[in-house]
Amino acid sequence: MRYSDYDLMVLEVFDDHLHESYRVPGYIDLTRMRHEWLRYLILRIAVVSKETGTAVNAGNAGRLLPELARRVFDDPIIWRGIVAPQIALCLDEAGRLHRALTDGGAEPDRIEPGIGDPHRYGRTTTKVSRNGSFQYYKPGRVSRRATLTALFGEADISESIHVPPDTPILDGYLQDAVPAPSSPAPDEEFWYHAGIFAAAADCAGIIDLHYGNIAPTDDAVAIIDDETVLALSPFDRERNLLTTLLLQDPTPSETEVSAGFMAISTTGISRYFPSLRESGPDRQLTVRMTTRLDSKPTPIGRHVRSLREYVDEFVAGLAHGYANIRRNRHAVVHALRSCPRESRSRALMYSTPGYARLSALVAVSPSAASSSEIHDRLVEELGRYPRATVGREIIASEARQLLSGDIPLFSIDPHSTHIVDGAGRVGRVRRAPIDECCRRILALDQNYATEQARIAAQCCSADYLASPDNRGAAIATEVPA
Per the database record, which ranges form the Lantibiotic biosynthesis protein dehydration domain (predicted)? Predict the structure, then answer.
């Protein structure tokens, strides 16, 4: 995301506000979080400008933008109710993490919150740098490394899958960064191992395998986010290789997500970030919502060529993975059932870009709107989406989480049937995820493996793999500022 000169004016005012109102130690890098908070500030400036009749143009922006920004800092609902608590929590959590690491003899050089989406009142994955190496702190989570290591070991496919080491700390764990490929295997060998990984992911109920949750190692695929293991099928769709690996079905009427496991370029979808730009002959400023950016190579795309060129190798790896799991099915099931009961799996109810659009809706609410009025509007918007399996409690929870500045997060104990949101139960499924996975593994046969190979081969032939069209219009809407 490239900031305009006017965005930078607002950012400068925000930085001054941060240093005047908060104590920000030198070891905390707020670059990513500032970007997230700036979304709210720019949109609120547009709201205040419109409500007060303050027209901002290129000639008066240097004077008026700082004035409008300072008014936003006094906004009781959006700024003081959403952003200010997130800033305070972010700084507090970074400080606690720094103290815990320092007390353990591993004082970090830098702590960078904001890796990933904000959940549970603004908590995010945090990057920790020390002596040139990196780790990632994942709060409020229990590691599944032992379960995954046992699972892949029992299936005799460990050489194809990398599970990063981690260490428990505070209420989460610190995960080692995935080492970049030092001497990458030939592309055909990598995609063969990727096929094995795909079979394991399908059988272990792994979801949301977009290009941000996996990474290549020398000749294997690394799982970065273990909350995606033993999870519900996304949006209650039928479980198969399409839903597991986020493949795009080449059938036009069945097109799903093209940002997944096979993508060598990102989709270029932004988080609906607002930017102040000049518009018209009077050079009046408007807020332009950027919905698509230029695509760029994914972590896999930076190291290997497109899967389209290695379909046979991928399908062969897929067959090998299913065969090994089928042969060792009872040991694999035993390993899966060892998953800690206190751990949680993701329960996906809606897409992150969709939630991001609604968070922008919160930010442009009228100043006179109460929290309950904004909540009701969110419930109305969320209720319009065709989600047959999503009940009123989940929709109400989505609205509450959006109103706290979060991207809504739902989870489930894989041994349970209850969907929770951090505050309590909000839904229920027919069968516990671990029971569903074990049932499918025990029933695994050649017919199923053949069908998944057919799906993979069909997806690999889709045109978007050869030349993904990931460029799009930069403007979704304009709001006068």
Answer: 106-412
